[in-house]
Hints:
- The protein is of the alpha/beta class.
- It has helices at residues 44-51, 73-77, 95-103, 111-120, 136-148, 166-183, 194-200, 233-242, 263-272, 287-294, and strands spanning 6-15, 18-28, 33-37, 59-64, 67-68, 80-83, 154-158, 186-190, 203-208, 211-217, 225-231, 246-250, 253-257, 276-282.
- Adenosine-5'-triphosphate binds at residues 15, 20, 38, 40-46.
Amino acid sequence: MTEPIVQLQNLSKTIRGKQLIQQLNIDLYPGQITGFLGPNGAGKTTTIRMMTGLMHPTEGNVIIDGLSLKEHYEEAISKVGVIVENPEMYKFMSGYKNLLHFARMHKNVTKERIQEVIQQVGLENRIHEKVSTYSLGMRQRLGLAQALLHRPKFLILDEPTNGLDPAGIREFRMYLRKIASEEGVSVFVSSHLLSEIELMCDRVAVIQNGQLIDLRDIHNESSSFYYVEAQPKEQVSAYLEQCDFNFVAENQGYVVEMKKEDVPAMTTQLVQAGIQLFAVQPHQKTLEDQFLEMTGGGQIAEANSK
Ligand SMILES: Nc1ncnc2c1ncn2[C@@H]1O[C@H](COP(=O)(O)OP(=O)(O)OP(=O)(O)O)[C@@H](O)[C@H]1O
């Protein structure tokens, strides 16, 4: 099993008696993109500040590539790349000069490495033009190039696509996925854009009131939802209830949470009970639905919660 590159261990923060973050435990792995979701005020920024050493935890620790941020700050932080919402750039200088400038802040960033990151973010045709002529999307990608210069093993992005149009978001997402797989970087992205996280990430961590309430792979086959349409509906819902399935009414049928291997038995039993089946098909429950349910902000009134 691959070792985690970053470990949040019982990470907690209390300010003036108020517990903002409570015992967060999260492992992040190389090559994976993990989304960090939570309602406003949940504690995302506070967590990221602790992960980047800008704020000291009250309790717990952040381990980066085996090094404690508390005890080996310089070495641990040298493995981290950070992109904030609007990366600071010298607009009157070219993209290339900006990268040269930031390269000097690190040891051992060669000209070859600068060329490599320029290619990775697709800026080779415009890199010698002034940043003031760049679109917001290009500036974000320059920010990404800057964050990658020193070959970080871990990349943190706080609301990276804020302000980008859909095409810019798609482009940024594509580059980020490429970088995670080509460089084996572990990426941690905080965002409010749930649909964006769903497309961009392999996993999602959800926090609420400073506590981790969910950490899951989001393209995992084992947590499956199926759309079942059959008549008469009352008989179908009675059957689903009796089988202890969680289900929600949707359109003419129900969205049912069940294991793949349980599907054949369910369809056989429905048919044997004289129920007319119209559809049983995999249902892609959006991350937004799941998130709203988890945080209690969604339409779960109809859900049959057992
Ligand atoms: N320095 C501070 N002193 C006291 N309370 C703070 C401080 N910084 C943040 N908070 C509180 O901690 C909680 C978490 O804030 P944080 O900014 O980490 O949330 P967030 O998830 O990033 O929110 P948003 O999505 O709105 O950016 C909030 O209730 C906030 O008011």
